[in-house]
Write a structure and sequence with these properties.
With 364 residues, the protein is mostly helical. It folds into two domains: 1-143, no CATH class; 220-364, no CATH class. The chain has helices at residues 9-34, 39-49, 61-89, 94-111, 117-128, 132-138, 161-164, 170-175, 224-253, 256-265, 276-305, 309-332, 336-350, 353-360. Helix 1 runs antiparallel to helix 5 (117-128) and helix 12 (309-332) packs antiparallel against helix 13 (336-350). The chain is globular, with a radius of gyration of 32 Å. The relative contact order is 0.09. Keywords: Membrane, Transmembrane, Transmembrane helix.
Length: 364
């Protein structure tokens, strides 16, 4: 690991997301442990255990609290380890990347008990550690350049007959080239005519220098699947942003229904001094966080259209998470089925063979 290689941007992004997300999981676990044994938590658990299907399990409140305590400690241990491993990943430690990949699965599952946002962020960041650019960097392989279009040739070296092309007339004309720079009878200082007729003017001169290191590749346009995937993503982002802003405006204008619903779902909040102003403030915090996630998704869609491979991988993960959330939301609001369909089509377009083949052109 002593070789100094420039760190790819996707590794830098993934490493800091892992460190930041793991610290967020630790803060959430600490908050959960601090109120785990409170009276409100006990009453909430008792109410849950008294309703079906938990009323037939025969589990008491103490057992549930002990289980939640152990689960929170395990999640905190996973998060603390992820912070250290994320820091070592930024220093190109191969073993840390492997251990972190294995650790991401239990961290994601155990983190669901504390909200799941930060643990999901860590899982998405771990995916970025396995894109082609990241794999090469961890193996100590520098950025690979595309191979030249033809065989290498020193400047000024004459091309062979095979390099001139399949035209059989090229070699005889090349052999008829005069040894002297000026043909007999030509005035002094006149330019030397080419040793081949004018209809071969498009063929490179045998003695012309050949440029190396500049591969000529046939242009490949962006597939329509990539373009439509980005367009559908931006449509979903616009609809999501409008929905969040509408909820925030409605809550600000009339917070009463939101306050009543929160009191109905969590009666213990009534004795904690929760007011309608706090409900509005909490709602706008959620709106801002949602808009930040939507903006991040839109940026990933733009980078995907520019051929950035790790952005496509990130977008696939984000769209998959959106499908899971929309599937849950569609059970409560059937209108969400439209958004679910758009997200499913977007994911299918991102996984199409022509989409993957186009992004392989940008692998280094």
């Amino acid at each position: 690991m002593s070789e100094k290689l420039p760190r790819p941007s996707q590794v830098t992004l993934a490493g800091w997301l892992i460190v930041g997300g793991s610290l967020g999981v630790l803060a959430t676990v600490y908050s959960q442990l601090s109120r785990l044994r409170s009276l409100d938590t006990r009453e909430s658990i008792e109410k849950t255990l008294a309703e079906p299907p938990f009323d037939h399990l025969g589990v008491d409140v103490g057992t549930v609290l002990d289980t939640m305590h152990v689960l929170a400690l395990v999640t905190g241990a996973f998060a603390a380890a992820a912070v250290v491993l994320g820091w070592h990943v930024l220093r190109r430690h191969q073993a840390s990347r492997i251990v972190l990949t294995v650790l991401a699965v239990p961290l994601l599952l155990s983190g669901m008990a504390s909200g799941g946002f930060f643990s999901t962020l860590v899982a998405v960041a771990v995916v970025l550690l396995w894109v082609p650019q990241s794999r090469d960097w961890f193996r100590g392989i520098p950025a690979r350049e595309a191979p030249p279009a033809g065989p290498s040739q020193a400047p000024g070296e004459p091309r062979s007959s095979q390099q001139l092309g399949p035209n059989p007339r090229q070699r005889p004309y090349a052999q008829q080239a005069p040894e002297q720079g000026t043909p007999q009878g030509a005035p002094q200082g006149a330019p030397t005519p080419p040793p081949y007729p004018s209809w071969l003017a498009g063929t490179p001169h045998p003695a012309a220098p050949v440029r190396t290191g500049q591969p000529v590749q046939p242009p490949q346009s962006r597939p329509a699947t990539v373009t439509w995937a980005a367009v559908l993503t931006w449509i979903l982002c616009a609809l999501g942003a409008l929905g969040l802003l509408a909820v925030g405006v409605i809550c600000t204008a009339d917070p009463g229904p939101f306050y009543d619903e929160m009191m109905r779902q969590n009666p213990e909040l009534r004795g904690q001094g929760l007011t309608e102003d706090l409900v509005v403030a909490s709602m706008w915090i959620g709106v801002v966080m949602g808009l930040a996630a939507i903006a991040f998704t839109a940026v990933m869609a733009y980078l995907t259209t520019r051929g950035v491979a790790w952005a496509r991988v990130t977008l696939v993960v984000l769209v998959a998470i959106a499908i899971a959330l929309l599937l849950i939301a569609s059970l409560m609001a059937p209108v969400m089925v439209a958004g679910l369909s758009l997200a499913a089509v977007t994911l299918a377009l991102l996984l199409r063979p022509e989409t993957r083949a186009w992004f392989h052109r940008f692998d280094r």
